[in-house]
């Protein structure tokens, strides 16, 4: 675990808000010289704290405006089943997030597809063929008043 000072935390906050922020603007916002700011960002990248940059897409304007949160239970709680399931989910483009959790289920997925029919196909053709699954509970997202991307 890295000890982060206030300026480094501010750099992280600013980049979370806008990953395309230029080093010049970032340095201004956090009160550092451009070279000192760039060194800190590069150190955060080397340390694996910043793992990448991405565009946040409004899927409703494309073909993935239908979001489903899926709770998944496994038949067995063994490593080979977990590995097989996570591999299958990594290969499924509809699965935007896959979280291994504690509790009554083993995984929570965030699935984005075009519509209910597309979700039915994903449910049948992707989840339905995973022999590791014991239960699937689908929750259709009606609205996301807070979504950090």
Task: Give an account of the 3D structure.
- This protein has helices at 6-17, 23-30, 34-46, 79-90, 116-125; strands at residues 66-74, 95-100, 107-113, 133-140.
- It has a four-stranded antiparallel β-sheet.
- The mean pLDDT is 92.
- The protein folds into two domains: 6-46, Orthogonal Bundle (Arc Repressor Mutant, subunit A), CATH 1.10.10.10; 59-140, Alpha-Beta Plaits (2-Layer Sandwich).
- With 149 residues, the protein is of the alpha+beta class.
- Helices cover 37% and strands 20% of the residues.
- Helix 1 crosses helix 2 and helix 2 (23-30) crosses helix 3.
- The protein contains five helices and four strands, in the order αααβαββαβ.
- The longest helix has 13 residues, at 34-46.
- It starts with 5 loop residues before the first helix and ends in a 9-residue tail after the last strand.
- It is elongated and about 55 Å long.
- 15% of the residues are buried.
Based on the coordinates given, report the CATH architecture of the largest domain: 2-Layer Sandwich
**Overall spatial form:** elongated
Radius of gyration: 20 Å
pLDDT < 50 stretches: none
Q: What is the C-level CATH assignment of the largest domain?
A: Alpha Beta
H/I helix tally: 5
Largest sheet: 4 strands, antiparallel
- Can you list the strand order of the major beta sheet? 2-3-1-4
- Quote the beta fraction: 15-25%
**CATH fold name of the largest domain:** Alpha-Beta Plaits
**Kindly, what is the distance between the CA atoms of the first and last residues, rounded to a whole number of angstroms?**
25 Å
What is the percent of helical residues?
A: 25-40%
Order of helices and strands: HHHEHEEHE
* CATH-level-4 superfamily name of the largest domain: Lrp/AsnC effector binding domain/regulation of amino acid metabolism (RAM) domain
What is the average per-residue confidence, as pLDDT, rounded to a whole number? 92
- What is the number of beta strands? 4
The total tally of domains equals: 2
């Amino acid at each position: 675990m890295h000890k982060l000072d206030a300026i480094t935390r501010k750099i992280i906050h600013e980049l979370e808000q806008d990953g395309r922020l230029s080093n010049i603007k970032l340095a201004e916002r956090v009160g550092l010289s451009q070279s000192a700011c760039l060194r800190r960002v590069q150190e955060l990248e080397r340390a694996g704290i910043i793992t990448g940059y991405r565009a946040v897409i409004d899927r409703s304007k494309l073909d993935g405006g239908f979001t489903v949160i899926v709770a998944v239970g496994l038949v067995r709680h063994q490593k080979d089943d977990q590995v097989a399931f996570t591999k299958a989910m990594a290969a499924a483009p509809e699965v935007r997030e896959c979280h291994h959790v504690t509790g009554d289920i083993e995984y929570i997925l965030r699935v984005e597809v075009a519509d209910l029919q597309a979700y039915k196909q994903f449910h049948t053709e992707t989840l339905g063929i995973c022999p590791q699954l014991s239960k699937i509970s689908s929750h259709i997202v009606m609205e996301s008043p807070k979504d950090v991307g």
